[in-house]
Design brief:
CATH architecture: Up-down Bundle
Strand order of the largest sheet: 1-2
CATH superfamily: Cobalamin adenosyltransferase-like
Number of domains: 1
Order of helices and strands: EEHHHEHHE
Number of strands: 4
Strand content: 5-15%
Distance between the termini: 61 Å
Structural class: mainly alpha
Length: about 180
């Protein structure tokens, strides 16, 4: 199978529904945003190991499935389910990580260890993808779980960035506002 079809050379792309839309379409933008999160998580995974690496790989698969649900519009009946159990699991993992982290008493800057910096980057890409999903939901049907999952994933990435620093013995970088 060839990777190029020439079908998108005119600035359009196909949806699972069979129709073609401009590549600037909000649904295409939202799916592209999820793909960007997936790539950023892949980059973060290169600096992680053990349980965190396994969690990141699992989330990458979930993001592909979420992208399929978002792109499929009303045709997602044939896809594996994407449901609240995934959100519950993210929340449980956040709670477990926060149980071993020192309390957050001030804003922190993205950084510290390499793994943490990469996870913070993935978090910001996730927040942009979330904004694209919200924009799409204001114009078209989006599975409600997609919005919740994207929001919770951003939270998860923030906490895992802090956990990566903690496990590496590197302090979070506190934000020190300038005196005015």
């Amino acid at each position: 199978m060839k990777i190029y079809t020439r079908g998108g050379d005119d600035g359009s792309t196909g949806l699972p529904s069979g129709g073609r839309v401009p590549k600037s379409n909000p649904r295409v933008d939202a799916v592209g945003g999820l793909d960007e999160v997936n790539a950023a998580i892949g980059l973060a995974a290169r600096a992680c190991e053990g349980a965190l690496l396994e969690q990141l790989r699992r989330i990458q698969g979930e993001l592909l499935l979420l992208g399929a649900h978002v792109s499929a519009e009303h045709l997602s009946a044939g896809l594996p389910p994407f449901d609240d159990a995934l959100i519950t699991r993210l929340e449980q993992e956040i709670d477990a990580a926060e149980a071993v982290l020192p309390p957050l008493r001030n804003f922190i800057l993205p950084g510290g260890s390499e793994a943490s910096a990469r996870l913070h980057l993935a978090r910001t890409v996730c927040r942009r993808a979330e904004r694209s999903l919200v924009a799409l939901s204001q114009q078209a049907a989006v599975p409600p779980v997609a919005l919740t999952y994207a929001n919770r994933l951003g939270d998860w990435l923030f906490v895992m960035a802090r956990l990566a620093n903690h496990q590496a013995g590197v302090a979070d970088v506190p934000w020190k506002p300038r005196a005015t």
